[in-house]
Amino acid sequence: PLDRDQPNGRPQWRFTVFAQDEGGEGLVGYADVQVNLKDINDNAPIFPQGVYFGNVTENGTAGMVVMTMTAVDYDDPNEGTNAKLIYSIEKNVIEEETGSPIFEIEADTGVIKTAVCCLDRERTPDYSIQVVAMDGGGLKGTGTASIRVKDINDMPPQFTKDEWFTEVDETDGTNLPEMPILTVTVHDEDETNKFQYKVIDNSGYGADKFTMVRNNDGTGSLKIVQPLDYEDPLQSNGFRFRIQVNDKGEDNDNDKYHVAYSWVVVKLRDINDNKPQFERPNIEVSVYENADVGKTLETFKATDPDQGGKSKVSYAIDRSSDRQRQFSINQEGTVTIQRNLDREVTPRHQVKILAIDDGIPPKTATATLTVIVQDINDNPPKFLKDYRPVLPEHVPPRKVVEILATDDDDRSKSNGPPFQFRLDPGADDIIRASFKVEQDQKGANGDGMAIVSSLRSFDREQQKEYLIPIVIKDHGNPAMTGTSTLTVVIGDVNDNKMQPGSKDIFVYNYLGQAPDTQIGRVYVYDLDDWDLPDKKFHWESQEHPRFKLDEDTGMITMRQGTRDGRYHLRFKVYDRKHTQADVPANVTVTVREIPHDAVINSGSIRIAGITDEDFIRVWNYRTQSLSRSKADRFKDKLADLLNIDRENVDVFSVQLRRKHPPLTDVRFSAHGSPYYKPVRLNGIVLMHREEIEKDVGVNITMVGIDECLYENQMCEGSCTNTLDISSLPYMVNANKTSLVGVRVDVLAECTCGARNFSKAESCRSSPCHNGGRCMETRYGLSCSCPTGYTGPRCQQTTRSFRGNGWAWYPPLAMCDDSHLSFEFITRKSDGLLLYNGPIVPPERDELLVSDFISVELERGFPRLLIDFGSGTLELRVKTKKSLDDGEWHRLDIFWDTENVRMVVDYCKSAEVSEMEDGSPPEFDDSSCQARGTIPPFNEYLNVNAPLQIGGFYREQFDPTHYRWNYMPMGKGFDGCIKNLVHNSKLYDLAHPGLSRNSVAGCPQTEEVCSQSEQTSRCWEHGNCVGSFTEARCQCRPGWTGPACNIPTIPTTFKQQSYVKYALSFEPDRFSTQIQLRFRTREQHGELFRVSDQHNREYGILEIKDARLRFRYNLNSLRTEERDIWLNAIAVDDGQWHVVRVNRHGSAATLELDGGEGRRYNETFTFDGHQWLLVDKQEGVYAGGKAEYTGVRTFEVYADYQKSCLDDIRLEGKHLPLPPAMNGTQWGQATMARNLERNCPSNKPCANVICPDPFECVDLWNEYECT
């Protein structure tokens, strides 16, 4: 059948008809035929879309147009009424009250209108009606109209509560918080509302102190706009006032129908915002310098308005204003004298008194106590200056010198001049027969003076100087008397002829780099020693090419570049007074190069009472005989004690430190195959000191020259020795010998060397140990280490002991704020872990330094003894179980000038309780921490004997010699010790200076490691961490897998990139460990964060100003943020870095690339909150935290961009990094945006053309033409 209607039919057909005669062989004729189809009504109307949408505004009049419905009929519109459509509503909706239909439709056009007025969206928001279209033949089609009622603001708003309550801290002064203190919600049935909130003026007390703001989600927030003060009696009971909301977005409230009201109650919490106040902030007192210790001076009183005046005030003295701790204050505010005063040291003290309240955090007020010290006569007079008159030989009696005196006491109190002088009646007979002392009362303007005269003539060749004791008395009541000694030098006259002489000169040439150097004078035998101006010196024949001679002084100079060897030089000398000519003089010069190794590994002693010349002298002018020099005898003694060949000992530096009375420093080195360590040389000399003194004939006052040994002498506070080696040699010239040695000075720098990062690092200043290769690049130092040396500078980190051994290392450097830490493992309950202090009893007349530190296990519990020289402090920690359990344990010991702390295992065993109600947290640390105060008044640990680990090697001596209150038990340790760190410097335990029954590493745990298949192979890319019973692999950064053989794949973080994690384990509340690798050239960005659901408690690792920072807050009610920085290292250098964060409670450490020196920082105190609650689903992010600003739009705050991350570990557990990996057994990446696999450079050379002959080098996201 034919179909004329769409979609498949056609209304017209055209075709051509052909006709042909002759049976298809003849002529052709044709005709066009057109067939028009006549329509029949065979198509019903249809609504092609089925459902049509329209809308109408609520509360409108009747007759408003809603929408138009149009149906389609494919029949012929020109054929009768086949396609003429009539519209009607088949299923209308009825208004309940009147029963009338709500909508109507125009039959011809399909326009739908409202049939009634005033539709209400809040009653019915949507309608659905069925519309029918019918053609003339009665065929029908239906469609649905879905009509939505559009909202107009016709409903009133309503607060969801009649009264809102909030509690808030009072403001700290005028600092107002940004955060809102209350959020209110409003109910309104309208679809869209423009809410406007406000606080109603004068609606109640405090209304002027707050304001309302509208939030994006339509809620309202209350903010503080004026300071709130709990101490104001009107405010302490809180505030009550009214707020309103208007849903028209206007401030006015004329249209009462659109306004709602509610009450707000704000209760104030007291915070510590007031300092205590002193009744008298400045007090002056006067006291005699001999006032008794314990004498009361004054009482200070302070009150604090916080906590309704119930706040407790405690008192303290600011120690920076009372460095010597002369005064103390008790909790009633009474100041007393606690150390004897001395007007001559400090005539006036300005002491800062602190009043500290008990708030959190506390606030402090300051008052000043001025103490004026009055003089008493407690100082004897002494010479005004160091007189050394010269009296020529062979002259008759005459006046030698006039002597004046001085006295430190207060002259105005008559405690000084006039002075009385006399010769000490106890002086030697020879002195009394040779000199007289007379008083001149009118001399020195009436202060009195002495005139010393000789009573006979003298011969210098018999005795060169005389010591005259003179007694001086002052005018005080009672008077003070003192004795000063006058040195009279007998001057030389050229009264002896010279005879031939010979001389030996020994030159130590440091690194072979000595410049032109004076090496000594030509020597002829002559009893006179001041007759140089009469002499002239010449070469015997021609000059030696390597040496020069000064004809006037006889000084020989060695030219630069002179090789090792022996040189024989011949000279002749002329004396014009005795007209002697051509007296021969021979000089033998021995030159030996001394390497840098010998100098830095040298031992040293300081000797008193002899000069540098005396030490090398072989000629005794009194007995006119030759004897072996002290230097030679000392060298023999060293070779003997070290049991090595004499040739292997070098005494290469003898330097005069002080002329009167003389002090001389001697340095020496010795070698087996490598050079012996200084700690060995000094330790052995120390243990045989008396024997050396006897055999060599010297008085040794210090072994191991240490300018920081005596407290507050060189520095007030931290003190670090630095070895200053000069290429300018130091010459000691005696008659028949001369020693040209290396000029080495020990300088005291008043800083804590381990923590002073002002100087740049170099391979010279911080070398790699144990054969590691040190590389200095533009980005700093790095060490490439041989296998087995895992410290950042190739240190051997571990040492093992068998119960009867020990090992010696360099002593602990002095620092006024110190931290010593190490780990140990043992099954034995007793053993000495570490000792640094005296190893021999003191000598009778030496300046006593009795400082020591000792750490040991006693019955399985740690015991610390520490003594700064003024009494011993003992600390013990009773841990929950004893530490001899075959597991690794860590001890941290802290000391400053007064306080000492010992912490076991980061205090993981502490009992913590924290409530959410704002009550203060409780922290019971009795099982893991002990603290104490050093007995006064010494302030520093000054040690320079060997640091001993694992046991004791020393002479037995009576502890009372050093006035110790406690002694170490000193039992040998059986087990292993590792990671010994002092002030962020890791000790190298590989080669002790001296040791017995001790080996590197820890065979006991290494054995456990080798037993399991997995751990025995992890050393390639990891370390086996083992106890005595079990072991596991700890992968090096960049490796993962059970045997650490799978490399991790880094990820590039582009702009607006982040990863959000869901963890499959419960993070520990007390401790957090974060480790990751990163690479960046950016100055800012957040690397990783953990937080609770609302971001109130958090720990954030970030880069700020190109420095690493970890900041954290553990209090969910208010921000008490702490942070640690690594200020000395910029990390935007485009290199891969490894960072580790270790948090235990409120203590945290931050380490970069091995964490030594400037790459380490810590804050190691447990106070306030200790727990960090981490939300496993919402709290863990890498690369920044994303905040969603819309359905699909987000912004990453602190965006870490154009940079890479790799190998992220939380609590040691590897987290995935998309796109290479989306999940591990420990967590899933639930959201990740704008990341790219691997860490390629951004092709910086693509558009760079370097000038010839340079080429562009890609340095990763940066280029250089080289």
UniProtKB/TrEMBL annotation:
Domain Laminin G: from-to ranges: 796-1002, 1048-1239
Record membrane topology: Single-pass type I membrane protein
PROSITE patterns per UniProt: CADHERIN_1, CADHERIN_2, EGF_1, EGF_2, EGF_3, LAM_G_DOMAIN
Gene Ontology biological-process annotations: animal organ development; cell differentiation; developmental growth; establishment of planar polarity; establishment or maintenance of cell polarity; homophilic cell adhesion via plasma membrane adhesion molecules; system development
One Pfam entry name: Cadherin
S-S bridge residues: 785-794, 1035-1044
Protein name per the record: Cadherin
Organism: Anopheles quadriannulatus (Mosquito)
